[in-house]
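Example 854, ligand FE2/S2 (inorganic) cluster.
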Amino acid sequence: MSLLELRVNGRVHSIDRDPDTPLLWILRDQFNLTAAKYGCGIGECGACTVLMDGVAVRSCMTSVSEAVGAKILTLEGLFAVEGHPLRRAWLGEEVSQCGFCQPGQIMNAAELLGRVADPSTSDVRAAMSGNICRCGSYPRIEKAILRAAKEMRHE
Amino acid sequence: MSSGTTLSRRDFLKGLGAGGAALVLGFRMALPGEALAEGLIFEPNANIVIDASGAVKLWIPWQEIGQGSLTAISMLLAEELEADWNSIEMQMAPALRKFGRMSTGGSRSVRESWEPLRKAGAGAREMLVAAAAAKWNVDPSECRARSGKVLHKSSGRVLGYGELVEDASKLEEPESPKLKTADEFRIIGRSIPRVDSPDKVDGKTIYGFDLKHENMLTATLLGSPFLGGKLLSFDDSAARAIPGVQDVMELEGDIAVLADDSWAALRGRDAIKAEWEPGKGSDFDSEVFRVEIRDLTSGPGTEARHDGDAPSALMSATRTVEALYELPFLSHAPMETMNATASYTEGSLNVEVPTQGPSWCRSMAERAARLHSSKIHLRPMLAGGGFGRRLWPDYVDAPVRLTRKLKRPVKVIWPREVDFAWDYFRPASAHRMRAGLDENGKLIAWAHTLASPSISGMMNPAAVANGLDEGVLAGAENLPYAIDNLLVDLHLPPCDLPVGWLRSVYDQNNAFANECFMDEIALAMKRDPVELRLELLAESPRLRGTVERVAELAGWGKESSLARGMSCHHCFGTSVAMVAEVSGSERPKVHRIFAAVDCGPVVHPDSLRQQVEGGIAYALSAALYENAVVSEGRVQKQNFDDYPVLRMDEMPEVVVETVDSGSEIGGIGEPPVPPTAAAVCNAWFAATEPRVRRLPILN
Ligand code: FES
Ligand code: FES
């Protein structure tokens, strides 16, 4: 155990934990930020995706010690600001079915749009293929991302 | 409108007692005429309460596992009740006896709510109108209900439903209220925003996996690494040394690790050293089983259907076509792994669980807790997928036993590896198909010998003692094609691997065999596969209609740079025909799938499209990749690295059209699954030989 400081959604939290603990479980169990989901625990599904200094990471494979010093953003933080274009697009395209994969999908999409203002369909597909959706919402995720990108360019 | 997910549970449940002035209605759903998939008896019952504020509370006995049913079902009530959509508060019903038997499968949620819920709504509307008319001393025919109010046309007087409930509740419920005709619908047929979407998009939905209670322990389980293993001994010293691990104990033959949080529980689990003794099934091998069932189909099975004289017709045929199709065991792998939470309040047990089978879960909780059902409050949670896996209640036992022992709330979570290992697998199957053509090239005989383990038989061997199982035969026995000499016979091999229902169940297996074989026959006859199907479907106009429509939609017969394949199937009350467009030689690339769907009236068109897209994705994933391999009794693929599934880069474009033949309402969760694999394999055959007869394609 050791005392660690984490900066999550603009707030600084101190916790006393084994520094090897995956960030996912700290977010979920210690900070009650349950948008990030457990889907596989081995970096294969993307359900646990959060941003660290703007980069999408698999929080199930990221130890808290690696997260110290970084700005961590979860879905709760991303959508804390009203009217995020990704939120509008996700609702507008009615993307969610069971919804369980969606927080990870949205965070991964947020990273993509932070990098590429005008992504092509193949950019979207390449960027999003690390995130599994067993309900098959893929066509709508694709549409929602293109829609959000367009809206962001015109803002 | 608000879904119960955002309401405080306490407020909502208060309504169940319906204190104060309120109009309380129950509705009982009739057993459907058609055979229930796999003998699941089903007679749900739900409650509707309109209170003095005009709020309409609806307890829905069907579980939302992602299919959008909370929205669609509520629309049925709102339509006939003439309710203000925003006044409807819907909630998944707890598994109380008064709601009857609850389970969600067989694509039944919306279609079985269709009639009773509209009737309940219409009945309530008539009572409210009658109450208003009596107040005003006018004839009810002069009044009209709209958006939660009753209006008296000539005088312009208006009363809200809330003001009328007290009087209305004293009236008799009308026996046969008048239902709207389709052209009068104002809500049904519209893609109203799904009520569960905002919370899901905001990450605010609390799934079972996310639950937290005061003083709660999080537990996980370690079981035998092979089927049928018996626990001999275990060493938990390393596990107990992990900070946060509170306890380790044997539990019904498995080992439970209890901890302050999820990570400690998972690490604790990994640190346990256990010895297991092999037992029944410990040598199970899915490859050996595949060969076994394949060989079984060389001999005749129990006859399920025999029209004409198929063996003689095959003997006398000028030409015969033969093919063997094989499908593997499949894992369900919903995104949210199995979990359940149990706790006590004042001598009553609470179980919170993402499930498709609340009643069965409650029975399991009764046994595990040794409590009468009246002392058990079982609350279904929104589930991160189900696909049939959550029809089983097995994940409820451990949390109930643990909370009973420890007198603390306990959430049991399954790591992905356990979720794979403890699945009830989609049964593997083998299909030996034979067809005979006469000297004029006419199809005169069809014989399908099918071998697959029985899900019903696993639960109750007596149920299949006569060698037949309606479930396994679904889609085989009721072949829609008109062929004079038709034989379907069945082998039900015993199987040590637990098998279970997976989205569309055996229809998926049988449709693959039927529809690939139909293309092989067309090739032998040198006939166009669409034309041949249209001819043979003369007596199945509904399915025929979808074939016609999809051919039109896809421009069948026109030049295309992509290879095309078609298939069709009718199940769960709905006909679906598909055309797949495929290219590639090493592996198929599926560009686009057209689907024509006839499910009768469409309640929520966008949910329908979601289900078709999702069904195709789920089925294509299985067709391309999925194969649950078991060797030496061990489930070999226990996570998504070994068990690849469809990802976005391989998702085809999906074009959906509905066909309205005026038929009664059908299901939509499952029907898009069965035709998918055959359409893709038929297209790939057109693109490149040889033909795929064994799934997955990328074996
Ligand atoms: S849970 Fe982290 S990638 Fe699956
Ligand atoms: S919406 Fe269910 S897994 Fe993606």
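Summary: Residues 323 and 433 of chain B are 5 Å apart (CA to CA).
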